[in-house]
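Researcher: Sequence recovery benchmark, item below. Answer with residues only.
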């Protein structure tokens, strides 16, 4: 009998396969793609590729890969050691007027925020927002916004009011910072960039790549290193932020260091665990926020876009940056949301 059981176990194991380390790589440069988000067939985040582009996949399973600088990819994994991703390019009309002659940098961004709680899609938001940035002080002024969002109605992942202050509602509209990730990295005395690798206390925490034609620079870092985790305690809850990756893509050339005026897109991924001992509550939460700069100009006045114009912009750019297929399928299943 025990041999029969063992045979059954071995048979089932052979069906699902063992997890294998697979490298995600750029189809043009062959370089590893780090911090790509990988979903399973149900749209659940299973992880992010590491600094070397590696992630564990199981043979015979369906996966979906998302990265702010690459085309989405869906496939059933066989036994390939490398999965190639095709770079994604979108263009913005160039502006000939220099920032020195104008008071504000005016840009519009298309943004998207996704939250999973215990592998279930809880929250989705996307939209268009505009910003005015002072070209001298870099002070950011917020313009109008057009949003579209969905909130899950599932009671098993519904949030209690008393946990709102620290809970899993990490979604937010995009907020441009005065300094870019690149500028913050260069100003941090513990960090430095050598040969395309970002170091913190002599330990590799990210990568900084310039495309071969010098048109763009891609910077990705582990925002938690070397802390590894961030623990918060409040009202009986313990919240542990164990993963926090950031990626920014810049318009780039040989003469200018990337600043907020060069920013083209941004991505932030966080994984945290929320626990409450008395209520025996444990929640795994995955949050991904991203935005794309879709329009920009230099101007001397803050003339806000009308709601009608932003609605038209939303229709235009939501088509340019479609919802990942597996997320769309979850949104369509209204009875589950």
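Model:
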């Amino acid at each position: 009998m025990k041999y029969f059981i063992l045979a059954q176990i071995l048979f089932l194991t052979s069906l699902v396969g063992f997890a294998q380390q697979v490298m995600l790589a750029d189809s043009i440069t062959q370089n590893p793609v780090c911090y790509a988000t990988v979903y399973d067939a149900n749209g659940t985040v299973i992880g992010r590729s590491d600094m070397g582009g590696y992630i564990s996949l199981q043979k015979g399973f369906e996966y979906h890969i998302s990265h702010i600088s690459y085309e989405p990819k869906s496939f059933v994994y066989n036994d390939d050691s490398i999965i190639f991703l095709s770079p994604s390019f979108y263009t913005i009309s160039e502006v000939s007027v220099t920032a020195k002659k104008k008071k504000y940098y005016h840009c519009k961004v298309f943004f998207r925020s996704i939250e999973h709680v215990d592998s279930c899609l809880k929250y989705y938001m996307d939209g268009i927002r505009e910003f005015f940035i002072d070209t001298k002080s870099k002070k950011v002024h917020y313009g109008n916004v057009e949003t579209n969002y969905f909130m899950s109605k599932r009671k098993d992942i519904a949030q209690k009011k008393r946990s709102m202050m620290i809970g899993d509602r990490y979604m937010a509209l995009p907020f441009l910072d005065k300094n870019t990730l690149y500028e913050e990295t260069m100003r941090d005395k513990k960090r430095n960039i050598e040969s395309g690798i970002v170091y913190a206390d002599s330990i590799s925490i990210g990568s900084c790549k310039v495309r071969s034609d010098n048109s763009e620079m891609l910077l990705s870092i582990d925002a938690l290193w070397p802390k590894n985790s961030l623990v918060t305690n409040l009202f009986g809850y313990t919240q542990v932020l164990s993963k926090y990756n950031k990626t920014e893509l810049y318009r780039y050339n040989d003469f200018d260091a990337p600043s907020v005026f060069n920013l083209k897109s941004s991505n932030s991924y966080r994984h945290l665990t929320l626990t409450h001992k008395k209520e025996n509550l444990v929640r795994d939460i995955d949050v991904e926020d991203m935005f794309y700069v879709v329009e920009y100009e230099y101007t001397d006045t803050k003339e806000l876009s009308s709601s009608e114009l932003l609605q038209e912009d939303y229709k235009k750019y939501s088509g340019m940056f479609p919802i990942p297929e597996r997320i769309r399928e979850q949104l369509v299943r209204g009875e589950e949301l």
